[in-house]
Structures are given as structure tokens and as C-alpha cells.
Amino acid sequence: MDEARWLDPQEERAWRGLMAMQDALDEFLERQLRTRDGLSGADYQVLAHLSENGGRLRSFELGALVRWEKSRLSQHLGRMEKRGLVTRERCATDQRGCIAVITPEGTERITAAAPQHVRDVRAALVDHLTADELETLARIGEGVVDRLGPPGP
Question: What distance in Å separates the CA atoms of residue 31 and residue 25, rounded to the nearest whole number?
């Protein structure tokens, strides 16, 4: 078995910095959404994607957008359905598939949450970066996602 190619100090600093930043951003945004809006970060992602796509998406399309496995998406949609944020409809063209549909309550909640969420994202990250730094961050993120491909089974 090949020996591990350990990170050098610069690589380790970059990796650990990315991990710490991701954890801190996730925790801050999650806390803000839960406290202020009664939504989890996962709820927000689902509602945002639905609202940006005409209020309805096939579950496999939604799963690809949020990068979740089928079972996780199904369980989360079930919890959101119980709270009146989404409904699920059978797909007319595929009896095994379903369509996630945002409800009026879900639309109201995402509409109320989105402006402050964007302010939080700006305050935590975006407004502290230059245009060049934002471009670099976008290229890095897109490159990593492209290399990793879709989520596993």
C-alpha cells in the first residue's frame, strides 16, 4: 500500500481554514434561520430551490440540486410535509417518481426568511471579500464540485 502524501504546512493551513470556515458559517446561518425563522438550513435549501423553480420539482431534480441521496430527501420532505411547508404529488409520467410542491405556507416562510438570510450571508462573508476574491472563491468551489461529481448512491 502506498504511503500517504501528507499535507505540507501551507496545504494543512488551507485545508483546516476551509473546514473551520465551513463549520462556522454553517453554524451561524443555521442558528440565525432556526432562531428567527423556525427553519433549518436544510428546510431553507429545499424551499429556496422550489421557489426558484416555479414552486415544484421532480424529487430527483431537487435531490441533485441539494446533493442529497434519495432516502435523505424523502425523509426530509416527509418532515416538511408534516409542518405544512411542502406537499408531494405523484408524477403522471412516472408512477415511481414524485413531485415536491411548495405550499402557500412554505412560500410565505421562504419569502420572509430570504431577505435576512441574504443579509446574514453578506455580513458573514460576501461583504468582506473583494471582487477578485469572490471570483477565486467561486472558481475553487465550482472546480471542486465538478471534480467530485454527483452525490454517491
Answer: 10
Q: Which residue has the higher pLDDT, 39 or 153?
A: 39
Distance of alpha carbon 122 from alpha carbon 88, whole angstroms = 33
CA distance 96 to 100: 13
Say how far apart CA 115 and CA 47 lie, in whole Å.
14
CATH number of this structure's domain 37-147, picked from the four choices 2.40.10.120, 3.20.20.140, 1.10.10.410, 1.10.10.10: 1.10.10.10
Q: How far is CA 149 from CA 79, 144, 152, in A?
A: 28, 9, 9
Q: DSSP of 51-113, one letter per residue?
A: HHTTTEEEHHHHHHHHT--HHHHHHHHHHHHHTTSEEEEE-SS-TT-EEEEE-HHHHHHHHHH
Q: Measured between alpha carbons, how far is 18 from 116 in angstroms, rounded to an integer?
A: 24
Query: Which pLDDT belongs to residue 116?
Result: 97
Express each pLDDT in 83-117 by its tens digit.
999 999 987 777 677 999 999 999 999 999 999 99
